[in-house]
Amino acid sequence: MGKSLHPLMKLVRAKFEHTCMISDKVQNVRAFVDKYMFEYKVLGIKLHSWRQIEKAAAWACLIIGGIGAARGYFENAGLETIGQYAVAGAAGAVLLFAWSSVLGWSQYGAECWGYLFGPGTVWAYRLAFLALILAGATADFAAAWALSDTFNGLMMLPNLIGLFALSGEVAEETRAFLRRQKP
């Protein structure tokens, strides 16, 4: 691991070195690092907890909207009042889901871009991502869905290439694993 001065990287490096010192094998370094990333705190709250808070907030919007709609129904309010509560709760949940999706895919994409083209070029990915968010938000609805469907379909190409390229290695690893499992 590099010599980063960031406290999180120091912690992960120390945990990794400790694990190696007690003769434990780390089979998947990426999973090892991800485990400790989830334990890192931002504003005093673990990253894993932020993800849980995000989900809880979306559910809270749905529940509050449902309670408001039920309250309006039982108080014999008009359908207009019930609809306002239900729509507000659903809109809040959809907004939180969309926001978390944009943040998540932005981060995943930046990590992949940095791996492919180097960490110094991530700024270009982020600029392109922001430009495409703006374009998607202002595009015609039908055109945005057509473009989305097209790119979702095109995602199969690199997956198929990787599947065929690695099929022999996967079969070999599977056979080796099964041989180790036999007594």
Can you tag this structure with a few keywords?
183 residues; mainly alpha; two-stranded antiparallel ribbon; 7 helices; 2 strands
Radius of gyration: 24 Å
Q: What is the H/E string? A: HHEEHHHHH
Main beta sheet strand tally, sense and closure = 2 strands, antiparallel
Distance between the termini: 37 Å
SS summary, helix count? 7
Helix share bin: over 70%
Word description of this protein:
The chain has helices at residues 7-21, 29-38, 47-74, 79-117, 122-138, 141-154, 156-181, and strands spanning 41-42, 45-46. The protein is an all-alpha fold. Among the domains are: 1-39; 145-183, no CATH class. It has a two-stranded antiparallel ribbon with strand order 1-2. Helix 4 (79-117) runs antiparallel to helix 5. The two termini are 37 Å apart.
Strand-helix topology:
Layout: H1 7-21, H2 29-38, E1 41-42, E2 45-46, H3 47-74, H4 79-117, H5 122-138, H6 141-154, H7 156-181
Antiparallel strand pairs: 1-2
Helix pairs in contact: 1-2, 3-4, 4-5
